[in-house]
Amino acid sequence: MTTFATVGGNFVREQLRAPLTLVLLVAIPAFFVVIFAAVVGQFADALGGTLAGRSATAISAGWAASFLTGTLAFFQVASSRGADRRLAAAGLGPMHVAQARIGAALVLATTVSMAAFVSLWVRSGIDHPLHASLAIGGFAAIYIGVGALVGAVVTDPLEGSLLVMLVFALDAFSGPQMTSSGGLAALTPTRHAANLLIAAAGGEGSPAGDWVNVALVALGSLGVAFGAFWFAARRRS
Known about the structure:
This protein is mostly helical. Helix content is 80%, strand content 0%. It contains 8 helices and no strands. It has helices at residues 2-16, 19-46, 54-78, 81-124, 129-153, 157-172, 191-201, 208-233. The longest helix is centred in the middle third of the chain and has 44 residues, at 81-124.
């Protein structure tokens, strides 16, 4: 357990040791919540969407958490294959390496989610803070899987980052803030988390089905991430 915690802590420090990363953890949530939300709200209104005002601000906090977490998860896999294989070969094993990576990813996701939550609270206030924080955490957990999966199949940092951004863009602009519930919108991974966050911003309750769906998608995404971390750490023949 001590070894797992030590390795996981090292993984977190590895991601945060660059000063620019620490700046981005604060700047990106602030950008999404304070600036991007206003643009998206106007765009949604122009398209006849269902999102405006405080809801646009709230959903932008979820987007900030998902984008940052997905990007960090991608780099955890893409930039650390060699180191993870050496750790696994030295006796830790790919299973424990994957567990440590998941632990580190969750710590980073929590940090990002807190930054997004605080930005949202400062910008517009939150009627249901607990619901909002859980919904933002759902966004982040889901994108751990997205980023890790991309990192498992794409090694180039630029190509991988752009692919994560593409998935994020398709998800964001096909969500409930821009479209109706049919077609492609019904398949976006963060749709139910977005519904929870919009309801929390407006002081409304959410049906149990949305909570269950968010939990299932988040757990499934973490399972995918675990598989990606394990695959990256296992020894090649």
